[in-house]
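pinned: reference chain
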Amino acid sequence: MEPIFSFRELQKKSKNINSNPTQIKVAVLGNHTTTFFVKSLEFQLKIAGFEPEIFESNYDQIDITIIDKDSDLYEFDPEIVIVFESTLKLKDKFYAEISNSSRSEFYKNEIETIKNRVSTLRNHGSKTKIVYFSYELIDDELYGNIFSKISHSFYNNVWKLNNELISFSENEPDFYVFDINKYLKGISNYRDWTANINSDLHYSIDTFARISHYLTQFLKAFKGSFKKCLILDLDNTTWGGIIGDDGLENIQIGSLGIGKAFTKLQKWAKHLKNRGVILAVCSKNNEDIAKEPFEKHSEMILRLDDISIFVANWKNKADNIRYIQEVLNIGFDSMVFLDDNPAERAIVKDSLPDVIVPELPEDPAYYLPYLESLNLFETVSYSENDKDRTAQYQQEAKRKQLITSVTNMDEYLKSLEMKGIISPFNNDDVPRIAQLTQRSNQFNLRTKRYTENDIVEFMNSDNYLTYTVKLKDKFGDYGLISVIILEKKNNNAFFIDTWIMSCRVLKREVEHFVLNRIVEDVKNKGLSSITGEYLSTPKNKLVADLLDKLSFNKVNNDYNYTLELENYKKLNNYIKNE
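pinned: its structure tokens
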């Protein structure tokens, strides 16, 4: 967990730049002095392992910058545009209106302006993601607590404008609301009124640093860095007491006393699971005793079918987390571990420094408020498929058990009885396809991130071949596990623009199954070769030799490859084509 630094601390710490940073291009458009905000964001991104390029619009030139298709914004071509308007200036604009009737309509005019900005960006060809700051809930107290009954009050209009902004975001792809009110809450003196008067600086430099901290968490999620798994200790973490000593009847859970704190924590974990976060258990306990509350306690919120990987034994917890990571096949930096015991937390921190280990308060009543304040599970996407992850990982644990009972890999693959479906992109899968491009880091040949609009364009273009791969076996359905996009470059070759696969199906020979189909399709199109390249990132070393293994030939001893189809021989696999 990255601490929240002051502006000066950020400036110092950002000088220790990651040796292999990830590129990110961000544009900031504001109607007030954004210089310190931009510098704070630059420092935060550097600390987070990025090499940022940041475009800052001229002072108070949001609309001119967007309307002018020849402006530097479009030449810069950002991945993400951040629009940060000052509510103080909004208030000045509001009171410039002459009549109460026009003030009553103020929020409607403002939301139309926002929609027009987004429309203009799209009409000028920008495919950027847009992060729009909400408006600070400033109450000028002219109408006190009857503001909700006064349609021409400023506070009433700010509330309505924020609600309209949220409604617009719900139906506008790649448009996101960043709620500034959440991050101003609970801090005092967040504005420097002297600097505001003299320099049109609408927050203190340390407030800009705080805001940029949370914004960077959001931008990291855009770039595929987010937490995927919550690992729970049990005794005095998931329930009060020690199940092995106190027994089922005496652990603290439910609606009475401190048991309510543990119930709230479990509800939070359950909501995360329903959103797609993987839940795992790592406990020093006898497994049968540890499972008893999940199976028999009437007031437990979490049940065994909510837990993807259940590990209860007397081994070192760091080793058990390594086992969980191996089964899930995700990075340690995607995992959060909760444990009430400071000694156990220290062991995991020392052994697995990439795992996030929050310092839980001593009083369980503060567990949930503390965890919610950390915003550990930031995300930029959600699909209905996310809620199925628990069952998929439970099935994967069974596959791990099976592999210990067979004598060789061929026997194991045959015993899985795999069936695969390869299809072109379709409308139903668009959210999941876009999500895979945004989230996949390891098996990702070029790590190109695409929006839902991009996916629809690929799907409808004659210049592309698109593929989704779905897989199931005797244990269950993996769902959509691979995405491939091929672009026609000339009359002889298709280029592999994107090849992504879930790490859950590694070593199943899915890539063999897929390439056989691709070669067949390209041949039917009358083309003679497929080209590709590997673009290295800090997380995709897994596929550095993918094209070598698939019999592509290197070009110029670089990461560029070609596969001539004339002499292609089908690759072996044990997947039945459905």
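why pinned: The first strand starts at residue 22 and ends at 30. DSSP finds 23 helices and 17 strands in the chain.
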